[in-house]
Amino acid sequence: MKKIAFIIISVFTAFASSAQDYTNFGYKPVYSIHTPKIGVVGGFHLSNFYNESVGDPNFQPGFHIGTSLLLPLSQNFSFEPQLLYSKKGGELDYAYDFYYNEQSVNYRLHYIEMPFLLNIHTRGITDFIIGGYGSYLLDATFSVTTAYSYGYGELNYGDFEKYDYGLVGGMAFNFPFSKLMFKYSCGFADVAKENTAYIYLKDARNHAFSVSFIRYFR
């Protein structure tokens, strides 16, 4: 977790420095961030579950794809709702055979997600982002890896909570007709509801670090 946080902070710092350099030379985005625009979104994220009751989950890669709508509110703010398909989850290690062997289980939760983002514009190309999200669970799958085998399959959809919601924060960098966005999202809802999922994922909640590229249309 500390390594991930260090990498994220380093990337933020590098892009912020570059953004400041562009601003010092009078750089401004070719397109206006103060006119309504629709765009397509794609990106990847590292997600896992946060809660001590499930042990120390490992981050697993995922992705998201969808659409975005940029709605200016003033010279300093714009509202940006999005509609995404997002694959989240986490990797947990379990011991079996009297703790002599271990298996890694990747839980994959497939959501339709709606982030509601408030962009706070600066005088340069940098935006600060705050907001929230709501999502609906479409499917739950898994893969399992042991020292001797690999397998995958469907989880019992009814064992999982269907709705998730939480807060979002981050930064974005505006470029001609596009934006590069870095976000952290923290879920408030438990992912498991009952039966086997609840036994293994009791009180577990989603969180993720994401990188998104948005291409706006004129």
How would you describe this structure to a colleague?
By secondary structure, the chain is mainly β. The protein has one domain (2-216): Porin, CATH 2.40.160.20. 14% of the residues lie in helices and 60% in strands. It is built from two helices and nine strands, in the order αββββββββαβ. It has helices spanning 2-24, 195-201; strands at 37-49, 60-72, 77-96, 101-121, 126-146, 150-154, 163-175, 178-190, 205-216. The chain has an eight-stranded antiparallel β-barrel with strand order 1-2-3-4-5-7-8-9. It is elongated, with a radius of gyration of 19 Å.
Give a short overview.
By secondary structure, the protein is mostly beta strands.
Gyration radius, in Å? 19 Å
How would you classify the helix and strand content by structural class? mainly beta
Q: CATH topology, which one? A: Porin
Proportion in helices: 10-25%
Widest sheet, order of strands:
1-2-3-4-5-7-8-9
How confident is the prediction overall: mean pLDDT?
Answer: 82
Q: What is the β-strand count? A: 9
Question: Hey, roughly how much beta strand do the residues contain?
Answer: over 45%
CATH C-level label: Mainly Beta
Helix-strand sequence: HEEEEEEEEHE
What is the global morphology?
Answer: elongated
The largest β sheet comes out as: 8 strands, antiparallel, barrel
* Alpha plus pi helix count: 2
Distance between the termini: 40 Å
Poorly predicted segments: 4-9, 15-31
Q: What is the count of structural domains?
A: 1
Tell me what the CATH architecture is.
Answer: Beta Barrel
Signal peptide: 1-19
Protein name: Outer membrane beta-barrel protein
Organism: Maribellus comscasis
Domain Outer membrane protein beta-barrel: 37-191
